[in-house]
Design goal:
By secondary structure, the chain is α/β, with parallel strands linked by helices. It has 6 helices and 8 strands; from the N terminus they run βαββαββαβαβαβα. Helix content is 34%, strand content 31%. β6, α4 and β7 form a beta-alpha-beta unit. It is globular.
Length: 182
């Protein structure tokens, strides 16, 4: 069975859950996990849905196209679909403190996290040796008031280069800029 995950957010409105779950039924999927949340202040709906597809003849690309055309466009959704067999790529942002980095890399080495870690980014070189010990590329991007814009551009370029899906701040001791978050 193929296992897929949908991550969805859009303006909160009636019928989203029904439309998405009926779509899963239509593509012969069985929902194994669903969670949703509404940020009332911002009027934003968030959903994470995991399911198993029982019909192996339906291609993931066809599901994406059908979802985009029949559901996502109607609700003006921002969404992503992940095949659970492909591990998401996680970047670690660190500063000088090593305890969180060791904990995460220990769990990563034991295959507890279900992710790939293709890069570690830091604003100091202090933890480079740890990254090298775990054979993960390490990039030092100085980040001060004076270099903030340049540092942010380099961080974003590295995230794109390594095709990162999400970031974990492992005691990264800098303010993350709105541009980087976006």
């Amino acid at each position: 069975m193929q296992k897929i995950t949908f991550l969805i957010h859009c303006k909160d409105q009636k019928g989203i859950i029904a439309a998405v779950t009926n779509f899963i039924l239509k593509v012969e999927g069985n929902i194994t996990y669903i969670d949703q949340h509404v940020d009332v202040e911002q009027n934003v709906f968030f959903m994470r849905l995991e399911c198993e597809l029982t019909n192996r003849s339906i291609a993931i690309e066809d599901i994406k196209t059908d979802f985009k055309d029949s559901i996502a466009s109607n609700f003006e959704m921002s969404w992503e679909l992940y095949n659970q067999e492909q591990k998401p790529k996680m970047a670690l942002f660190v500063s000088k403190y090593d305890h969180c980095l060791f904990d995460i890399l220990g769990r990563y080495s034991a295959d507890e996290l279900g992710v790939d870690i293709p890069v570690i980014i830091s604003n100091h070189n202090d933890l480079r040796a740890i990254a090298e010990r775990f054979d993960i590329p390490f990039h030092c991007v100085p980040f001060t008031k004076d270099t903030k814009e340049e540092g942010e551009k380099l961080q974003i370029a590295l995230l794109k280069k390594y095709e990162i899906n999400f970031i974990v701040l492992a005691r990264y001791m800098q303010i993350i800029t709105p541009k980087l978050i976006a």
